[in-house]
Design brief:
The chain is α/β, with parallel strands linked by helices and about 210 residues long. The protein has helices at about 5-15, 30-35, 50-55, 75-80, 90-105, 125-135, 135-140, 160-175, 190-195, 205-210; strands at about 20-25, 40-45, 65, 85-90, 110-115, 145-150, 185-190, 200-205. The radius of gyration is 17 Å and the shape is globular.
């Protein structure tokens, strides 16, 4: 099937309240344009430089989501245009995003990444770290970022029960936040249907749209 057909098939299977982020990392611009021409307007990249190059070359009604691990020294390159930063996992990173957003006279939306997997190489805050970050004076002072929700990545495993447990754990943390933010980003090509069952409102899908890398 073509990129457009893949995209439309996935979109037709998603509930109305679920946002699709087309994960376009490493894919060439002509592939992204096929998805764009089929109506997709939200793309996810994991390298800031690549995302900036695509942003410059492509139509300006696209929302660019940074879905990879973010290095503080690279924030300035995406601050002028990024729509949502998914993997915010420290106060230090948040402060840098706030600083660069201020320079660009913007308020940048962010998702706080929660560590839910049983894998050492995944990033994120635990519940205690999340609560102390949100309660900190430094966080209260930031005027150029907006926390719109949480994000988490499940363990890379075939064990559906474990994945369900991790997604449910993220949702329980999400529901404790007040006032309740709007986005809970969990689920990728392999587990997005389960993530939606567990309450996800944003899924990140790449290979099922664009084919393998």
């Amino acid at each position: 099937m073509s990129i457009a057909q893949n995209l439309l098939k996935i979109k037709s299977s998603l509930p109305e309240n679920v946002t699709l982020v087309a994960v376009s990392k490493t894919k060439p611009i002509p592939d992204l344009m096929k998805a764009y021409d089929a109506g997709q307007r939200i793309f996810g990249e994991n390298k800031i430089q690549e995302m900036a190059e695509k942003w410059e070359a492509m139509p300006k009604d696209i929302e660019w989501h940074m879905i990879g691990h973010v290095q503080t020294n690279k924030v300035k390159f995406m601050a002028p245009f990024v729509s949502l930063i998914h993997g915010v996992d420290s106060l230090k990173l948040l402060q840098e995003i706030n600083k660069q957003a201020q320079k660009n006279n913007r308020i940048i939306d962010c998702l706080l990444q929660i560590y839910i997997a049983k894998e050492e190489n995944k990033f994120g805050l635990d519940e205690e770290e999340l609560n102390s970050l949100l309660a900190s004076a430094a966080f209260q002072e930031m005027k150029n970022i907006r926390i719109v929700g949480l994000m988490g990545m499940a363990t890379f495993t075939d064990n559906q029960n474990q994945i369900r447990k991790e997604f449910t754990h993220l949702k329980s943390i999400f529901y404790k936040l007040a006032p309740l933010p709007k986005t809970i980003s969990m689920g990728m090509s392999g587990d997005y249907q389960l993530a939606i069952e567990c309450g996800s409102t944003m899924v990140r899908i790449g290979s099922r749209i664009f084919g393998g890398r």
